[in-house]
């Protein structure tokens, strides 16, 4: 498996997976130009509403608007023919119905004129009633898109773990969302606001991507760092 790891002018980082030429973008979205597919993971739309509904912490109810704005920017930049949402797009099954009218209208505008595929996640396993198609996984060419990585598969694009890289930079310990690439699979960072993360050195991730995995760190540009060199 060969990787380019030389960023484009906009800071995005191209690489190869199962023969497909893909691009990790600074926003955390995955771009497959040849297929005109944009993939995003773990939007968790409606998280503040879900927490309030269930008597949890009260968070400012702006995360859905922020997430949709970032998604809108990425769609305007790439102009995909299909958007694949890799599960946990909503914070629970009721959250899609709890979106504010302006948020529903924004999402409907983004979906118009293109194929929109929702992958079922552990937070939102039921079909999405807002439009688009809901499936357990989606195969496109030699790639398979699913929410949680399966053992033994190659050419797999998944989500779920919200991977983050921990490192020391100029004497400061920092944490950044990242893609994780290794063992013939790619795990995307969470795209949504108000989402935590799991260290790429955690056994749950490390056991999937192997000892030679690369972390593609988000920032003003995407940078590739060997997972083995990162802090635990």
List keywords for this structure.
alpha/beta; 16 strands; 232 residues; 18% helix
Helix content: 10-25%
Through-space gap between termini: 26 Å
How many domains make up the 3D coordinates? 1
CATH topological fold name: Purple Acid Phosphatase, chain A, domain 2
The total of helices stands at: 4
In one word, what is the shape? Answer: globular
CATH first level = Alpha Beta
How is the main sheet built? 9 strands, mixed
Number of strands: 16
Strand content: 25-35%
CATH-defined architecture: 4-Layer Sandwich
State the secondary-structure class: alpha/beta
Low-confidence stretches: 50-54
Radius of gyration: 17 Å
Write a brief structural summary.
The protein is an alpha/beta fold.
Would you spell out the secondary-structure blueprint of this structure?
Layout: E1 13-17, E2 20-24, E3 30-32, E4 37-40, H1 47-53, H2 63-78, E5 82-85, H3 101-111, E6 115-119, E7 133-135, E8 137-140, E9 143-146, E10 156-158, E11 163-169, E12 172-182, E13 185-187, E14 198-199, H4 203-209, E15 214-217, E16 223-226
Parallel strand pairs: 4-5, 5-6, 6-7, 9-10, 10-13, 11-14
Antiparallel strand pairs: 1-2, 2-3, 3-4, 8-9, 11-12, 12-13, 12-15, 15-16
Helix pairs in contact: 2-3
Q: Mind explaining what this structure looks like?
A:
With 232 residues, this protein is an alpha/beta fold. It has a single domain (13-229), classed as Purple Acid Phosphatase, chain A, domain 2 (4-Layer Sandwich), CATH 3.60.21. The protein has helices at residues 47-53, 63-78, 101-111, 203-209; strands spanning 13-17, 20-24, 30-32, 37-40, 82-85, 115-119, 133-135, 137-140, 143-146, 156-158, 163-169, 172-182, 185-187, 198-199, 214-217, 223-226. The strands form 2 sheets. Strands 8, 9, 10, 11, 12, 13, 14, 15 and 16 form a 9-stranded mixed sheet that branches. A hairpin with a 2-residue loop joins strand 11 and strand 12 (172-182). Helix 2 (63-78) runs parallel beside helix 3. The longest helix has 16 residues, at 63-78. The radius of gyration is 17 Å and the shape is globular.
């Amino acid at each position: 498996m060969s990787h380019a790891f030389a960023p484009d002018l906009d800071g995005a980082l191209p690489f190869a997976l199962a023969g497909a030429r893909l691009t990790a973008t600074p926003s955390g979205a995955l771009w497959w130009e040849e297929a005109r597919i944009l993939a995003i993971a773990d939007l968790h739309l409606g998280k503040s509403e879900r927490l309030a509904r269930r008597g949890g912490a009260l968070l400012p109810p702006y995360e859905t608007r922020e997430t949709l704005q970032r998604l809108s920017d990425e769609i305007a930049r790439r102009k995909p023919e299909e958007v694949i949402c890799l599960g946990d797009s909503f914070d629970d099954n009721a959250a899609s119905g709890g979106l504010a009218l302006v948020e529903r209208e924004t999402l409907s505008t983004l979906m118009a004129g293109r194929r929109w595929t929702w992958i079922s996640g552990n937070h939102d396993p039921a079909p999405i009633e807002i439009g688009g198609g809901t499936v357990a996984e989606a195969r496109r060419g030699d790639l398979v898109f699913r929410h949680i990585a399966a053992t033994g598969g190659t050419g797999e694009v998944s989500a779920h773990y919200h991977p983050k890289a921990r490192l020391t930079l100029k004497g400061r310990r920092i944490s950044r969302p990242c893609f994780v690439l290794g063992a013939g699979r790619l795990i995307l960072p969470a795209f949504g606001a108000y989402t935590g993360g799991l260290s790429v050195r955690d056994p749950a991730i490390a056991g999937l991507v192997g000892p030679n995995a690369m972390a593609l760190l988000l920032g003003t540009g995407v940078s590739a760092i060997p997972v083995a060199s990162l802090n635990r």
